[in-house]
Amino acid sequence: MATKIDSVGARNVLKIRREPYWHRVSKGAFLGYRKMIPGPGGSWVARMLDETTGGQKYSALGDFSDMPDNERFDAAKKAAQTWFDHREAGGSAIGITVGEACARYAQKQRDAGNEVVANDYEVRFRRWMFGDRKLSNTPIQKLTTGQVNDWRVKLAKAPALKQDKTKPGTRPRAASTINREMAIFKAALNLAMRDGYATSDGAWKYKLTPIKDATGRRDCYLDTNQRRALIEAAPADLAALLKALSLLPLRPGAVAALTAGNFDKRLGVVTIGKDKSGKDRKIGLPPQTAAFFAEQAKDKLPGAALFARADGQFWNKDSWKYPFKDAVIVAKLPPAATAYALRHSTITDLLALHRLDTLTVAKLSGTSLAMIEKHYGHLLGDHAANALALLAL
Question: Which of 110, 231, 269, 378 is least surrounded, with the fewest CB atoms within 10 Å of its CB?
């Protein structure tokens, strides 16, 4: 005969034992109550028959100590039913937390050889996920729309980080940045669902919808004369980096990370390491550009910075920020000019002045064809108008 566990009185008089007292919920599915101390209080567990293997699967549900004694049975039964439904839908018998889902996603990138991407994701998760212990420790099956919405609101209210990370930011966080953080979080949760740790994306599908029109066109364009003026106004070590950024449509961080070993003088080829695109790629340089790279690599060990600071160290966004701003002022350029504006300017020239096809530009710059069309589609429109003009009779 089954032992009653659905009332406070019945549970209080149970004998202490490690084996749970079981309550049948449905065929092959049971809710258990484990009593390990005298009087009130105990933990709840779900048990379900695995029809494929014939074995029993278990899921610890907790003690529900934050609820009144008389509400714990119903709460435990509801949690057990959620797990039963999850298993019947093909979900994994093993549960993971939201934090574990994020860690698995970063590790997946590392296993695929995307070390830089994995490191970037781990930094983001430490900043926006692992610091929120309640959310991070929430089983993904119990994640609610309210929790995801609260996370999104908190993210949106957080000011943008200072470049030097030594002072709290005051500038509002850009919508594009919010979208980037949400996209990574959503991808981690979706991976967990694909792997069977969740059977529904209802908690996050709509709450992590990107903000519309968050990423506008890169409008700060520097023409050739302005780029020359910027290079001339910069210190010699920074000038070399800026010249490289003016010769190739690359992300500033990718160029700053180049080593002397990344340049093959014999072939005139530079290998761009794994930047935001996540893949290595090789670019054959024209003779004049190759000569400039060879000059920078002269007498340097393979692991040394190709475009080094005066002290031999690698450049990064923190070290070039203020010297770059000073050069912008001296060169009398628009205050909106940034190192990234050089990339935008070179891509613009390749498309608008040199009429290079979008697929080649996308490959050179290490971005997708879709992103090129999104940010530079207005230039392609001019191409189409000029081509149509040639059809005139």
Answer: 378
Q: Give domain limits for the chain.
A: 8-88, 98-194, 224-389
* β pairing state of 43-49 and 263-264: unpaired
Residue 151's nearest CA partner among 168, 165, 163, 133 is: 133
First-residue to last-residue Cα distance in the chain: 95
The rounded distance, in Å, linking the Cα atoms of 46 and 77 is: 9
Torsion angle of alpha carbons 47, 49, 50, 51, nearest 10°? Answer: -170
The two structure tokens encoding residue 284? 């054959």
pLDDT digits (tens, 9 = 90+) for 162-199: 544 445 555 677 787 888 899 999 999 999 888 878 77
Q: Could you tell me which residues come within 8 angstroms of residue 264 by beta carbon, excluding any fewer than 6 positions away?
A: 270, 271
From CA 105, how far away is CA 118, in angstroms rounded? 8
> How many Å apart are CA 359 and CA 10, to the nearest integer?
72
Q: Which has more pLDDT, 170 or 113?
A: 113
Burial class (CB in 10 A: 0-12, 13-18, 19+), 24: exposed
CATH topology of domain 224-389: hpI Integrase; Chain A (1.10.443)
Phi and psi dihedrals of 21, rounded to 5?
Answer: -90, 130
In single-letter form, the type of residue at position 75 comes to A
- Residue 193 and residue 90 in contact, taking contact as beta carbons nearer than 8 Å: no
* pLDDT tens column, 215-231: 554 568 889 999 999 99
